[in-house]
Amino acid sequence: MTGQPVLATDRLILRSFDLADAPEVQRLADYEVASCTLDIPYPYPDGVAEAWIATQQTGFEKGAHVIYAVTCPGEQDLVGAAGLVEINRRHGRAELGYWVGRPFWGRGYATEAARAVIEYGFSVLNLHRIYAMHFSRNPASGRVMEKCGMVHEAHLREHVRKWGVFEDVDVWGVLRDEWRQRCTGPAIRECRLVR
Fold first, then answer.
1. Dihedral of the CA atoms 46, 52, 54, 56 (nearest 10)?
2. What is the pLDDT of residues 120-135, one digit of tens each?
3. Which of 72, 125, 137 is nearest to 96 (CA)?
4. Burial of 106 by CB count in 10 Å (0-12 exposed, 13-18 middle, 19+ buried)?
5. Model-wide pTM > 0.90
């Protein structure tokens, strides 16, 4: 595949971000979302979403990451983002990341999007391991990882700094063979190449 494919699940479409998504990214990345993620700033400055989106195609082409806009079909409303970063071909691993805007919390969208991205990582990128981290004070993110068949691997004390405060993180991971054994049913209904 030369272009980033679109992924379709039962309820979501995962597609490449477009610069037109920038205002919605900025709106959805409110204090509650930013406080639970390492790299989302708050308040979200003008121009930052455009700069972030502008890096994605090059990163995909270099094999460094694949980042998806998570949308609802029909309306194409932006729900959030999900993707694989720190893709390491030598070691066959990548880090899963995701966020969902607060108006969409509690609907299972993060789990559905994360499962699609994991399936893409194992089936298309042929990865061996996918891992993810969350702030320990955000157990909801850990529940998403658990629902995705990930295993809790570590609790790292004061491992990262967010807004000047050292934060504990929990690390989860899943191996391709474990994913195949634990996860039933297709995580991706459709995977098509964007032309």
1. -160
2. 999 999 999 999 999 9
3. 125
4. exposed
5. yes
